[in-house]
């Protein structure tokens, strides 16, 4: 349900998008709009403030509001061209350093990917946790795998929106999505095996591949359509592949959402060869459209016997501090459960009880609606800042969900150096080579536009603009 001021904003932005109101033209006055929609003037003013945040209109002194010229949409980066050979992964200490500097309040943090947690619907977790501490005697006890039953039931319910109909007994609660992915990788591979990944790929996936002694085969991936299925087919013919790991919905860092048709094709392709798919579903709830996209797992009819292993968590959609993740490992359920025991014995009881209680309260969907709208607004603001401050030759993705964006800078730019110089000016970004097993993407960076305030985003973009000029 949208708020009244959102209705005002939609009413005007529809007219702008349909060309009824053009750049430079005056927007109906607050009084006029209030009479037209039968909404109070205060609400109309809030709606107009929202449109200003979205850079659709601007106020002019003593004159009213005017439509702004649309910013030029820059082209997305071309489809990636990694070498089609497996390589050992060797990310240096940068990933760890990035995470360690992420707590420094004096740095504008665009380099790591935490969500916005400064909202009442996340703060509510504190109150729920206190209530759980008061009411539940079991918090001092182990929560052995597969993990809190009530939480698994809530997750199974939510998975219906992804088109996945499972029994709560098919879920294993993990410490974040990172542990889920690592356990699933361990369940389906042994050291030395080759795994296909998207290119560029999330550095936590690369880290897991590295520490498990696996090899990564990077597949060309397009910022709009995702992993190239033609290249994947070629790779499957040429190499002995043991697993495919990818984030089909709002991948990190490209932000693409694979079409249902391609999800189905990918599923069929890998089913024929018997290769397990590890599906990282972590950003799916943050779609900018009203419904979350389907999971690849939804195209699999084999149920509990499936070799699509879905991994996810509440880290992006609610709170990374809870460390609540899960795996739905299909036919590898037994192995993943045993690996969970060998990895960490049990989960933390308090976060599981708190998360179960939060999901049970029925407030999560409202929270998600707010966050989706907020991230979309932040994306538009970021694109506006990029068009204003970055060189015109910069190419950017246009994410349809999540909150990270991938930027291709001029060929001569060394993003590792840019990382150091920007950090010295108190701006953190993630340099491109972090997202490749073979040191590619030297002139790329990833930015998190979801967490910083609008004024910090602006300051950071001015700094980056100066460094790149
Ligand atoms: C694509 C992707 N998968 C997994 C993770 C790790 O998630 P968690 O914090 O739940 O372990 C992240 C975190 O940035 C991510 O971006």
Describe the protein's architecture and organization.
- Strands 3, 5, 6, 7, 8, 9, 10, 11 and 12 form a 9-stranded mixed beta sheet that branches.
- The chain has 15 helices and 17 strands.
- The model has no long low-confidence stretch (mean pLDDT about 95).
- The protein has helices spanning about 5-15, 30-35, 40-55, 95-100, 120-135, 150-160, 175-190, 205-210, 230-240, 260-275, 335-345, 350-360, 365-390, 415-425, 455-469, and strands at about 55-60, 65, 85-90, 110, 170-175, 195-200, 215-220, 225, 240-245, 275-280, 310-315, 325-330, 395, 405-410, 425-430, 430, 445-450.
- A hairpin with a 3-residue loop joins strand 1 and strand 2.
- The protein folds into 3 domains: about 5-65, Winged helix-like DNA-binding domain superfamily/Winged helix DNA-binding domain (Arc Repressor Mutant, subunit A, Orthogonal Bundle); about 85-120 and about 365-469, Alpha-Beta Complex (Aspartate Aminotransferase, domain 1), CATH 3.90.1150.10; about 120-365, Type I PLP-dependent aspartate aminotransferase-like (Major domain) (Aspartate Aminotransferase, domain 2), CATH 3.40.640.
- It is α/β, with parallel strands linked by helices.
- It is about 40% helix and about 15% strand.
- Bound molecules: pyridoxal-5'-phosphate.
Keywords, please?
3 domains, binds pyridoxal-5'-phosphate, alpha/beta, 9-stranded mixed sheet, 15 helices, 469 residues, globular, Arc Repressor Mutant, subunit A, Aspartate Aminotransferase, domain 1, 4-stranded antiparallel sheet, Aspartate Aminotransferase, domain 2
């Amino acid at each position: 349900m949208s708020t009244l001021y959102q209705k005002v904003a939609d009413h005007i932005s529809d007219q702008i998008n349909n060309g009824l109101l053009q750049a430079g033209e005056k927007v109906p006055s607050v009084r006029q709009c209030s009479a037209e929609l039968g909404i109070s003037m205060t609400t109309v003013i809030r709606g107009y403030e929202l449109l200003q945040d979205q850079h659709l209109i601007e106020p002019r002194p003593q004159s009213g509001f005017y439509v702004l010229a649309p910013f030029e949409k820059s082209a997305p980066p071309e489809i990636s061209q990694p070498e089609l050979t497996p390589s050992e992964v060797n990310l240096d200490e940068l990933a760890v350093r990035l995470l360690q500097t992420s707590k420094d309040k004096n740095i504008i943090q665009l380099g790591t990917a935490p969500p916005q947690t400064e909202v009442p619907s996340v703060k509510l977790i504190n109150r729920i946790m206190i209530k759980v501490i008061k009411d539940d005697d079991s918090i001092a006890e182990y929560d052995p795998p597969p993990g809190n039953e009530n939480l698994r039931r809530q997750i199974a319910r939510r998975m219906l929106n992804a088109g996945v109909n499972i029994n709560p007994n098919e879920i294993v609660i993990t410490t974040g999505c990172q542990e889920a992915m690592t356990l699933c990788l361990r369940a389906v591979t042994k050291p030395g095996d080759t795994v296909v990944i998207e290119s560029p790929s999330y550095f936590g996936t690369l880290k897991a591949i590295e520490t498990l002694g696996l090899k990564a085969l990077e597949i060309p991936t397009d910022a709009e359509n995702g992993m190239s299925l033609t290249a994947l087919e070629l790779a499957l013919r040429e190499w002995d592949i043991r697993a495919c790991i990818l984030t089909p919905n709002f991948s990190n860092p490209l932000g693409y959402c694979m079409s249902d048709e391609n999800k189905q094709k990918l599923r069929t392709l890998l089913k024929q060869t018997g290769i397990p798919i590890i599906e990282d579903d972590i950003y799916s709830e943050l779609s900018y459209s009203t419904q979350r996209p389907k999971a690849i797992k939804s195209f699999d009819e084999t149920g509990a016997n499936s070799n699509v292993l879905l991994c996810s968590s509440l880290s992006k959609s609610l709170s990374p501090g809870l460390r609540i993740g899960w795996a739905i490992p299909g036919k590898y359920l037994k192995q993943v459960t045993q690996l969970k025991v060998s990895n960490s014995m049990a989960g933390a009881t308090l976060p599981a009880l708190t998360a179960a209680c939060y999901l049970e309260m029925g407030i999560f969907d409202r929270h998600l609606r707010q966050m989706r709208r907020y991230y979309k607004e932040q994306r538009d603001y970021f694109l506006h800042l990029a068009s204003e401050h970055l060189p015109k030759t910069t190419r950017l993705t246009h994410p349809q969900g999540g909150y990270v964006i991938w930027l291709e800078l001029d060929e001569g730019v060394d993003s590792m150096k840019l990382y150091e110089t920007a950090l010295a000016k108190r701006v953190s970004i993630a340099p491109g080579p972090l997202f490749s097993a073979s040191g590619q993407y030297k002139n790329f960076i990833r930015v998190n536009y979801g967490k910083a305030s609008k004024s910090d985003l602006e300051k950071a973009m001015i700094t980056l603009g100066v460094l790149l000029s």
